[in-house]
Specification:
The complex is a heterodimer of chains A (about 800) and B (about 290). With about 800 residues, chain A is an alpha+beta fold. The radius of gyration of chain A is 30 Å and the shape is globular. The mean pLDDT of chain A is about 85. Chain B is built from eleven helices and no strands. Classes of the chains: A alpha+beta (about 800), B mainly alpha (about 290).
């Protein structure tokens, strides 16, 4: 057994390597344990030649390893050299099985049976987990691999891919993509179908099978691997066939289980929760520290800095200023109050109700994402109908919300500690009211992602936001001089309900008089006329439904179902009736809204009697659009194919406006009754692409456009998350010669996206521009608006929002 | 014209009207007004000895017509340079169509109905060709898009071609066990079922002697001399050839409609360039030799 190390570091990624390098530089006894045979396995597994970016750009790196944006190979080489230079004590093939002991005397058992002893432990194992291994006989042979860097590498081989998830399917399809490589590929899947994979992948795989390019073995299990051969157990019996290479993609075990097994607590049971940590990265087990992605910091720069910091903390540093201190100082400079960064953090945490559950470390991270702003009395915080999804916490002072318009205009005060802007956050729709500072006020502006992360990890924050949101939404929607006090009774039994796409919250003909408020998503109202369901209207988030049965009594007159996964608030009918008795103005408002709705319904029923076909068509088109995800869109490109001549000027204009890359595929996509929904961004209320963007590069612009800024690191998460396939990964093509030289002298590729051949011929030598995510930004900031629509010669291309488009007005067009 | 966009001329992304009916036929009304004024002026300003291009009205009408022709030509630039400004191509096309028709009236009045075998009438004739080809373009634009849409359904052109390739592969694989004589028939489909081709073939959509069709028609003959096993294989081949016939019909129809949608430009654009040359000659000759 070796001696006791001062620090044992688990994982040699950017965080672990930086910690080890700093320990080495300080002459602290240490050991760096790495399960593979190379440093930084996660980055090692990146595709060859991948460009790695360095964000956030304003953050300085303070560590003994350096980091500049560049190619995967360059960065890995630099780190290897620096590890050697600092004489980092690395132990490869050191997979940790268990950790026992306490601070000062930990025993780390490795899978080879040996034990490493250390006084403190730094966990820097990331979140990738370990790939699940082949458990059958021969699983340890050299030709069994768990990743595929470059499918083009393999020629004329018999390859067996094990695993029917996305990774396995994508690998298998990659290997047969170029038939000239001559690979014979077999895919072995344990299940009968490919339910775990994306539909597109599964379809492509089955098509490849039909074409005879790949053999699929389902309900099959590998039983034996020998050099050159593999045996697979299938329902028809065991089969042994030639196999030069096994690629096993069996998923990976998330590290949480391991982390919990050594006694660390997590902030919550939620999947996205992180270990509980002190400001010095110490976990709930004294002596064990957590840094890097596992601690909730997926960006390389953060990881590297934390490696340095954690060694300082272990060395006893108490007044170590984090590397991000200058950023926070700059951000807080010029604000009234003359507080230090630490004082600000504490002040905000104490004052703003929803932040009270945060740890100081979380608070720090939180402030890096957020912005503190001071307002003078009367300053506008945000305007009604402007687009914004950030949440504001009131740290001091108070604000006034302007509700209603004209004579009915009134202001509602909101005191210190509360929040504003939550409706935009929840529903993704434009701001519902103008908010001004009522006195000198300090607000914390929390971007949507940070707010959602906060709600996911801190239950108190979630409950508070939900309560306030529902109350405010009701006040704003109903107006009628209601006050929060009036609603207490109704809100007591209010219930937030998740509704799946297509699920009905109200059914035609049933009893019931509860009121439903659409909190997020959207609903469609349908009525059965002449034995067919007919589309009546579309309800975006922020509307209510169910008032007819409540006010007039009787059964439900129409069916209301979710156009897309939605959230509704159910308000108890009896309590709401009591409220109507107390507030006749509210009943009046409900009756007025109801009269409008009745008129629309009556009109459609009347038309249906006279011109059944027109109504059927209107209803069918509306249903088609809802099926195409229009229910969660805020602005979508449609093409009227009775006008489209197929000139692709829309695509060309798109490419010319955006660095030569088109963000739209006109021909692809669904069509119904000559109405075509091309493959192009719908600017969803709650963009899927935003859900997991490590550098937080996806934002919503002032006109509702969802766009990706230049801090994109090209990870491809958004592309994978988008259910509409509208994001592509590509690098910026070389600059084209101008239009006149093309027109007169034929120089360059002409308008539109240059073809691959021209791009390859004209690229600048050496520098491969990084691939980044590319999507429609609705031509943000361009005076004329979206180029696709402007460039359409015949008027076929239009951009619409669902609430404008899904109305009876369309019926009169007769198309 | 619509170069510097006014508020009313802005592209409205949600506005759903075609180029002909753009903003309640705004450009039809304006072009109509231009024609009415021109006709009224023609009859009111009595030129001596007879209406001709050299009168005050004649010069005015000629200048207007020539400037209009130049502006109409700029559409070719406009549709390729989208990036700046906030104009809409639909508005331009709308103006192009109606002002283009108005040019016909203004230029005819400018001529004073004097025609002869000279460069002046040449310019006039070229203009008539341009306008008539344009009218043809408007007609196909109004009629064909819905057929293009109906024919392709939700299939893209790329997918259509890929389907053909996939079918060819399957036909090739299925034909491997056949006898040489049988395989020769199948080979016809693989070798000689082109899509596209020269302009006339695309416009007519007819592919006489299409290899796939010939292979299909010979299949029943082959069946008579085939063994039972071979008949089964031929059945499979026939199914594939039928599918290929349907795929060929779709892609040929697609290319046919697209050809009709663009063929008129092959007259419209070169004639426009010839027209501008002729107008230049016309103007020079008038000022130098008259």
């Amino acid at each position: 057994m070796e001696g006791v190390h001062r620090i044992a570091i688990l994982g040699s990624g950017p965080a672990g390597l930086s910690a080890a390098a700093h320990a080495a530089a300080r002459g602290v006894s240490h050991i760096l344990l790495e399960k593979s045979d190379h440093l930084s396995d996660t980055i090692f597994r990146y595709q060859r030649g991948k460009h790695i970016m360095a964000t956030p750009s304003q953050l300085v790196v303070r560590a003994d390893v350096s980091f500049e944006p560049g190619k995967r190979e360059t960065i890995l080489d630099t780190w290897s050299n620096e590890a050697a230079k600092h004489k980092v004590n690395v132990r490869y093939h050191a997979e940790v099985k268990s950790i026992t002991g306490t601070r000062g005397n930990f025993s780390i058992a490795l899978s080879d049976g040996s034990v490493v002893r250390a006084e403190t432990i730094v966990l820097a194992i990331g979140t990738q987990g370990n790939p699940n291994l082949m458990s059958c006989e021969g699983g340890g042979l050299a030709h069994v691999q768990y990743q595929l860097d470059d499918p083009a590498e393999y020629v004329d081989e018999h390859i067996c891919v094990v695993g029917g998830g996305d990774a396995g399917i994508e690998n298998a399809l990659g290997l047969i993509a170029d038939r000239a490589q001559g690979n014979t590929v077999t895919l072995v899947n344990r299940g009968a179908d490919f339910a775990r994979a994306k539909e597109a992948n599964a379809k492509a795989l089955l098509a490849a099978q039909e074409a005879g390019h790949i053999t699929l073995l389902t309900t099959a299990e590998t039983t034996l691997i020998e050099p050159g051969w593999i045996t697979v157990d299938t329902p028809e019996g065991a089969t042994r066939f030639q196999c030069d290479r096994v690629i096993a993609r069996l998923g990976s075990a998330p590290p949480r289980k391991f982390v919990e097994s050594i006694g660390l607590e997590f902030t919550s049971a939620a999947r996205e929760a992180f270990p509980k940590l002190s400001p010095t990265f110490e976990s709930t087990v004294p002596g064990i520290y957590v840094i890097g992605a596992l601690a909730g910091y997926p960006l390389i720069k953060h990881c590297i800095n934390q490696g340095y910091d954690v060694v300082e903390y272990i060395g006893g540093a108490v007044d170590l200023k984090p590397a991000d201190e200058p950023i926070l100082e700059a951000r807080l400079k010029g604000l009234p109050g003359n507080r230090s960064v630490a004082q600000w953090l504490e002040f905000l945490r104490q004052e703003i109700e929803i932040l009270r559950g945060l740890s100081p470390l979380q608070m720090r991270e939180f402030l890096l994402d957020s912005d503190v702003r001071a307002f003078q009395s009367g300053d506008v915080v945000f305007k009604r109908n402007s687009v914004g999804s950030s949440l504001f916490g009131i740290a001091s002072g108070s604000v006034e919300v302007e509700v209603g318009a004209g004579k009915k205009r009134m202001t509602v005060p909101i005191p210190t500690g509360s929040i504003v802007g939550e409706v935009g956050l929840i529903s993704g729709r434009p701001r519902g009211a103008t908010v001004r500072a009522a006195e000198p006020t300090i607000l914390l502006e929390i971007p949507r992602i940070a707010a959602l992360r906060l709600m996911a990890s801190v239950k108190e924050a979630r409950d508070t936001v939900n309560r306030i949101t529902t109350e405010r939404q009701l006040l704003q929607m109903f107006g009628s001089g209601l006050t929060p006090a009036d609603l207490t009774d109704v809100l007591e039994t209010a219930e937030i309900r998740q509704v799946k796409t297509g699920e009905a919250i109200i059914r035609e003909g049933e009893d019931g008089y509860d009121i439903f408020v659409v909190r997020s998503g959207s609903m469609v109202v349908e009525k059965e006329i002449g034995g067919k369901p007919v589309f009546l209207s579309y309800l975006p988030a922020g509307s209510y439904v169910g008032e007819m049965a409540l006010v007039d009594g009787g059964r439900r007159s129409a069916t209301v179902q979710a156009a897309i996964r939605s959230e509704v608030v159910r308000l108890d009918g009896d309590r709401f009736r009591a409220l109507l008795k107390r507030k006749p103005e509210l009943e009046e408002k409900l009756r007025a809204d109801m009269a409008d709705r009745r008129k629309v319904n009556g009109y459609i029923e009347e038309q249906k009697g006279k011109f059944g076909d027109v109504v059927d068509m209107y209803s069918a088109v509306a249903d088609f659009l809802v099926d195409q995800g229009i229910g969660e869109a805020t602005d979508v490109l449609l093409i009227d194919e009775t006008l489209c001549i197929g000139c692709d000027n829309c695509e060309k204009a798109c490419a010319d406006v955006h660095d030569g890359l088109s963000r739209l595929d006109r021909e692809a996509g669904r069509t119904y009754a000559h109405l075509h929904v091309p493959t192009s961004c719908r600017h969803c209320e709650h963009p899927y692409c935003m859900t997991d963007c490590p550098p937080n590069a996806i934002h919503r612009g002032p006109d509702g456009e969802v766009f990706i800024d230049e801090t994109c690191i090209g990870c491809g998460n958004c592309q994978r998350n988008c259910p509409y396939d509208v994001i592509r990964m590509d690098s910026r093509p070389p600059k084209k010669p101008d239009l006149i030289s093309w027109l007169l002298f034929g120089v360059g590729p002409g308008p539109g996206e240059p073809d691959k051949a021209w791009r390859a011929k004209n690229k600048t030598k050496g520098a491969e521009p990084p691939k980044v995510a590319i999507k429609c930004d609705m031509c943000i900031g361009k005076a004329g608006g979206p180029a696709c629509v402007r460039a359409c010669p015949t008027g076929a291309a239009i951009r619409v929002s669902p609430e404008e488009f899904l109305t009876v007005k369309r019926m009169n067009r007769g198309d | 014209m619509a170069k510097t966009a006014k508020t009313g001329e802005r592209s409205n992304p949600g506005q759903h009207d075609g180029f002909l009916g753009y903003r309640n036929f705004r450009w039809a009304w304006r072009a109509g007004a231009l024609c009415v004024i021109a006709i009224a002026a023609y009859f009111l300003m009595d030129a001596e000895p007879r209406p001709n291009g050299g009168s005050v009205f004649g010069y005015a009408a000629g200048t207007i017509a020539a400037l209009l022709v130049l502006w109409l030509t700029l559409l070719g630039l406009r549709k390729r340079a989208i990036t700046s400004g906030d104009w809409s191509l639909k508005a331009w096309v709308s103006a192009h169509v109606y002002l283009g028709l108005a040019v016909m009236v203004v230029a005819t009045l400018h001529s004073g109905f004097q025609f002869g075998w000279n460069v002046h009438t040449l310019a006039y004739g070229l203009m008539v060709v341009v306008v008539v080809s344009g009218l043809f373009g408007i007609t196909v634009y109004a009629i064909l898009p819905r057929y293009l849409s109906r024919n392709r359904g939700e299939t893209t052109q790329k997918q259509m071609l890929e389907t053909l390739k996939a079918l060819d592969r399957q036909i090739n694989d299925a034909a491997q066990p056949l006898s040489e004589a049988q395989a020769r028939v199948v080979q016809m489909s693989l070798d000689d079922s082109r899509v596209g081709g020269h302009l006339w073939r695309r416009l007519s959509g007819g592919h006489g002697g299409c290899g796939n069709r010939r292979a299909l028609s010979r299949l029943s003959g082959l069946r008579r001399q085939a063994t039972d096993v071979q008949v089964q294989m031929l059945d499979r081949i026939e199914e594939l050839l039928q599918r290929k016939a349907a795929a060929l019909a779709q892609v040929r129809r697609h290319l046919q409609i697209r050809a009709w949608l663009s063929v008129w430009l092959a007259v419209h654009v070169p004639t426009t360039i010839a027209l501008i040359a002729a107008i230049t000659a016309h103007v020079f000759s008038v000022f130098i030799y008259w």
